[in-house]
């Protein structure tokens, strides 16, 4: 007859309890394993750590041909560039490490700003950073995401003021890639507007720019002509009138540039088709 003593390990009650505990343990182990699989993987990068400092005294001039190794670069220059590299890598999530030898190349190339770093990476390390540069376009200009977005909006606004059309991806890339005449870096909105007004391809495509007019001023000019003539005036007629008036004043005349609320002087020489 089976034992009914609960302390007997061979009793039915004891066996049932042992089986229940075994099942519970297996279920807990399975749940723990599933939870472990669902945990996000650890970061695939290691925050940047500057290499050992140089023994070259600060203020030492770079030899002809550049520094041979990173350790040859004076400590002050190492620290300055290392700090900027850390900020630049931070803006892209430390996805691709920059080696000390690549930093040596940057020093030899005269890299001094965050913008310089982005341009150097784009020109010389584009294969390794292809994904970064594609998905994070601000990295090529040494900017953070928010600053890049703000500048893109500024360039887009100025482009539409001048041309009356939305800025294209190629034109936006050109705006970021074309620095001001002095000082390097990226143009301000007003600098970009003036560059557009002086751009020959823009003048050829949007003929009113030849006369120092932005799109709003061109539209207002046509309205004035319409009022003066007592009838509608199309683009071709308005262009012909502008061209005639400028030709009548002589090739040495100037026109007032009405763009983004500023008054500047632009050459008035004209020729060929004015608008499209």
Could you write a compact summary of the structure shown?
The chain has 276 residues and is mostly helical. It has 11 helices and 2 strands; from the N terminus they run H-H-H-H-H-H-H-H-H-H-H-E-E. It has 2 domains: 70-143; 146-267, no CATH class.
Q: How would you portray this structure in words?
A:
With 276 residues, this protein is mainly alpha-helical. The protein has two domains: 70-143; 146-267, no CATH class. It is 52% helix and 4% strand. The chain contains eleven helices and two strands, in the order αααααααααααββ. It has helices at 12-38, 75-91, 100-108, 114-124, 130-135, 145-163, 169-177, 189-198, 200-205, 215-229, 235-249; strands spanning 254-259, 262-267. Strands 1-2 form a two-stranded antiparallel ribbon. Strand 1 and strand 2 form a beta hairpin. Helix 6 packs parallel to helix 8. The longest helix has 27 residues, at 12-38. The radius of gyration is 34 Å and the shape is flat. 23% of the residues are buried.
